[in-house]
Write a structure and sequence with these properties.
With about 280 residues, the chain is an alpha+beta fold. It is built from 10 helices and 10 strands. The strands form 3 sheets. A 5-stranded antiparallel β-sheet has the order 1-2-3-5-4, with helices on one face. A 3-stranded antiparallel β-sheet has the order 6-8-9. The longest helix has 19 residues.
Length: about 280
């Protein structure tokens, strides 16, 4: 079977989703992503599924037109970000659900073979030390100095956990898009999600109400996320704060123009505290 013969039902930056067989879909990675990426996602899904975390049931691996793919359970529903945009009165419940599910992920021991979250952050930042247009050198060095003081963890970390990666089906909420999965410290993964909720811009196509109330809505979702997480699992607030600067600098390396000014202000404040 070739790609033109498949029926596409969704797509993202890294992969396309196609109908498959027997209640499954094929997550087919784009050409720039190889077998290793698919294997890591499959490993993470199997570990999470075995631990009772709500994820799509993983199937096998396959190749279509030279592109690697993962077969998994088909989900019929809507992501929480879109749902909250359509029904703003569900912002609080959507945020608490996001926090609770994230805490459940962090209860799972990472399977063998996943990359280190700390090493990923360090590598991303080091590659931009000499790229002042993307990351000011003093901020890169600041983040690297902090990372030296932090220890890596052994828990399953999603790497991109936010309401847009949670699907609400008829009877449950399911966590999707495990392409950034890693082994690491839950506080670091939490710090990234908290930052995205604090700074994230509404995606293209968001409702007028969500765009108009983006600032207020983001604050409500963030508060609800924190409440939901703490209701499920204890959280070391001091450790989260120590991870925040490296996470912010790593976010700068991603080159999201809409977030840059806010990130720089936050990091400048942290630098003043440090000095």
């Amino acid at each position: 079977m070739s790609v033109p013969e498949l029926t596409k039902i969704a797509e993202g930056r890294e992969a396309e989703i196609f109908e498959w067989e027997d209640g499954t879909v094929l997550r087919l990675m784009r050409e720039s992503y190889g077998l290793e990426s698919v294997e890591l996602q499959a490993r993470a899904l199997k570990a999470a599924h075995a631990a009772g975390v709500a994820v799509p049931a993983p199937g096998g691996l396959t190749i279509v037109d030279g592109r690697h793919g993962l077969i998994m359970e088909r989900l019929d529903g809507i992501d929480l970000l879109t749902l909250m945009g359509r029904k703003p009165w569900q912002i609080w419940s959507g945020g608490t659900t996001t926090g609770r599910l994230h805490a459940e992920v962090h209860e799972v021991m990472a399977p063998e073979g996943l990359p280190s979250l700390k090493e990923r952050l360090e590598g991303n930042i080091r590659r931009h030390v000499e790229n002042p247009d993307r990351v000011p050198p003093q901020m890169a060095r600041f983040a690297l100095d902090i990372l030296v003081e932090l220890t890596d963890g052994d828990r399953l970390c999603h790497g991109d956990f936010h309401p847009g990666n949670i699907i609400k089906t008829a009877d449950r909420h399911v966590i999707i898009d495990w392409s950034n999965v890693a082994k690491g410290e839950p506080a670091a993964d939490y710090a990234r999600s908290q930052l995205m909720l604090q700074l994230g811009e509404p995606p293209p196509g968001s409702s007028f109400l969500l765009r108009t109330l983006a600032g207020v809505g983001a604050g409500v979702v963030l508060s609800a996320y924190r409440r939901g997480y703490r209701g499920q699992s204890a959280l070391d607030e001091e450790l989260v704060r120590r991870w925040e600067a490296p996470v912010m600098v790593n976010r700068l390396t991603e080159g999201i123009a809409e977030e840059r000014t806010k990130l720089l202000k936050l990091l400048e404040a942290r630098l003043r505290e440090r000095n």
